[in-house]
């Protein structure tokens, strides 16, 4: 074993040790991907398993890299749910790629703290450039580009993005109507909007009783009814409340419903509300011309967000937020302590991204997105997304041909919502049967799917989007689902 006095002990930083151990780590990770299909997709460990395997305190003396990697194999990997497995079909994907991984390596190697332009000029300027690149791929309105009053910024997640813009919207309206009116501010969304909106309301000080969660139904495939929004806004105005924030979604988590942006935006504008569009999952698909229609109406929005780490081959975390008016962010979030003052910032010559986010510190996240865009190019990225959608169509066809199952909502992107068909119209029995199917499929370790509830129905979600997923994995997954279903039906 190495110890603190050994000439072989790991130094805080040494270029030759980094080269040696870096090669070993890359080999380890490459071998992991080579064998990823041998692991249960969903971890099968029990809560607290790791406490029994690791010591109660940190070692006093150095251990070897080999010892640590052996423990990763024996103790850590069994407790990992393998999100990059080709048989991971749960939730929505988080993408990783060779280019994204290389970008992460470079980011870790440079290890900058890029809170202001002067702290690392390249980090700020590259972020501005690549956000403009992606905005152009999405054909976003020019108001979202950096050449005007708008621009883009990389957040850690769509949850952070929605909190940032809600705070900006809150401060903007309070400057107009007075700080003491906070308790009158009202937020609107559908019952399919991501739960991060509720958390944003809590963090932004919006009273939860002023959060209007508007009911959706199958008649619009769970998209928000503009009529429901208008009715709720009118009632709140009559009650002396202040509508100030609307969140629309392109690709809801439960079923990838698409809210009618143009109609919602018209209502938001006429009532002076901030309109935010959450396209965390489906936004990536909209770089394909045939799917761009799903963000038609985005020109009415004040902000737009999508996660490049979900479906654009960019390693987590990389959530892209655009705003039409960057001053709304900076006026709400800016701080200017003496120890951060510098000539470029004081002269308003540069962007300081610390004033576009909650935290001060930030990583050089644009590097990995830049490398993804350059090493793959737009056409390969479009083909990548189209392939997943084709696989989803194939799975949809398989479900539709099986008399034991039904499709619950129309497939738009690469998520399929399906379930057992109820027998004798017994919904409770049907829901319990689908719960059991979910459990047995996931406990097999052969694949991992998740669920949702739509109109009281327990629904299975099959989301295709892992970089390694091929047709054979989709077919194998369906075979497992059918086999487990047949077993449950025979009992």
- Relative strand content: 5-15%
Cross-sheet strand order for the largest sheet: 1-7-6-5-4-2-3
Specify the number of helices: 14
Helical/strand content category: alpha/beta
The rough form would be described as globular
Q: What is the rounded distance between the termini?
A: 56 Å
Mean pLDDT: 95
Helix content range: 40-55%
Features:
491 residues, alpha/beta, seven-stranded mixed beta sheet, four-stranded antiparallel beta sheet, 14 helices, 11 strands, 12% strand, globular, disordered N terminus
Q: Would you kindly provide a brief summary of this structure?
A:
By secondary structure, this protein is an alpha/beta fold.
Draw up the topology in text.
Layout: H1 15-34, H2 65-76, H3 98-110, H4 121-137, E1 151-155, H5 158-177, E2 185-190, H6 196-203, E3 211-214, H7 226-238, E4 242-249, H8 261-270, E5 274-278, E6 303-307, H9 308-311, E7 319-323, H10 326-333, H11 343-346, H12 366-401, E8 405-407, E9 415-420, H13 427-443, E10 450-454, E11 457-463, H14 471-490
Parallel strand pairs: 2-3, 2-4, 4-5, 5-6
Antiparallel strand pairs: 1-7, 6-7, 8-9, 9-11, 10-11
Describe this structure in words.
By secondary structure, the chain is α/β, with parallel strands linked by helices. It is built from 14 helices and eleven strands. Strands 1-7-6-5-4-2-3 form a seven-stranded mixed sheet, sandwiched between helices. A four-stranded antiparallel sheet has the order 8-9-11-10. A hairpin with a 7-residue loop joins strand 8 and strand 9. Helix 3 runs antiparallel to helix 12, helix 5 packs across helix 6 and helix 13 packs across helix 14. The longest helix has 36 residues. The N terminus is likely disordered.
């Amino acid at each position: 074993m190495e110890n603190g006095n050994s000439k072989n002990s790991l130094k805080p930083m040494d270029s030759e040790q980094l080269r040696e151990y870096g090669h070993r780590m890359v080999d380890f990770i490459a071998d992991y991907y080579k064998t990823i299909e041998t692991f249960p997709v969903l971890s099968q460990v029990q809560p607290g398993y790791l406490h029994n395997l690791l010591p109660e305190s940190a070692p006093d003396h150095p251990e070897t890299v080999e010892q640590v990697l052996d423990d990763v194999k024996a103790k850590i990997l069994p407790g990992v749910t393998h999100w990059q497995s080709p048989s991971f079909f749960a939730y929505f994907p988080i993408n990783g790629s060779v280019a994204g991984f290389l970008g992460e390596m470079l980011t870790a190697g440079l290890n900058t703290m890029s809170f202001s332009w002067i702290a690392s000029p390249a980090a700020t300027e590259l972020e501005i450039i690549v956000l403009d690149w992606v905005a152009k791929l999405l054909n976003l309105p020019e108001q979202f580009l950096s050449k005007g009053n708008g621009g883009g910024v990389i957040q850690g997640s769509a949850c952070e993005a929605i909190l940032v813009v809600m705070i900006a919207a809150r401060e903007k309206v309070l400057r107009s109507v007075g700080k003491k009116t906070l308790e009158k501010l009202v937020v609107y969304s559908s019952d399919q909007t991501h739960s991060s909106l509720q958390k944003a309301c809590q963090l932004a000080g919006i009273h939860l009783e002023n959060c209007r969660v508007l009911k959706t139904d199958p008649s619009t495939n769970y998209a928000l009814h503009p009529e429901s929004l208008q009715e709720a806004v009118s009632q709140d105005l009559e009650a002396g409340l202040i509508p100030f924030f609307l969140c629309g979604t392109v690709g809801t988590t439960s079923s990838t419903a698409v809210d009618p942006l143009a109609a919602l935006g018209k209502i938001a504008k006429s009532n002076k509300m901030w309109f935010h569009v959450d396209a965390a999952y489906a936004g990536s698909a909209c770089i394909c011309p045939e799917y761009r229609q799903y963000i038609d109406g985005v020109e009415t929005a004040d902000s737009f967000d999508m996660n490049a780490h979900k479906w654009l081959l960019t390693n987590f975390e990389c959530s892209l937020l655009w705003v039409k008016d960057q001053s709304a962010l900076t006026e709400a979030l800016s701080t200017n302590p003496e120890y951060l003052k510098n000539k470029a910032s004081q002269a308003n010559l540069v962007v300081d991204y610390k004033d576009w986010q909650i935290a001060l510190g930030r990583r050089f996240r644009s590097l990995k997105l830049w490398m993804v865009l350059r090493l793959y190019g737009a056409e390969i990225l479009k083909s990548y997304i189209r392939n997943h959608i084709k696989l989803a169509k194939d799975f949809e066809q398989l479900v539709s041909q099986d008399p034991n199952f039904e499709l619950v909502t129309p497939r738009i992107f690469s998520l399929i919502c399906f379930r057992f068909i109820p027998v004798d119209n017994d919904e409770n029995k049907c829901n319990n049967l689908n719960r059991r199917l979910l459990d047995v499929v996931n406990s097999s370790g052969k694949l991992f799917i998740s669920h949702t509830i739509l109109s009281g129905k327990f629904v299975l979600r099959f989301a295709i989007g892992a970089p390694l997923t091929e047709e054979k994995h989709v077919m194998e997954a369906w075979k497992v689902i059918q086999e487990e279903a047949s077993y449950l039906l025979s009992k």
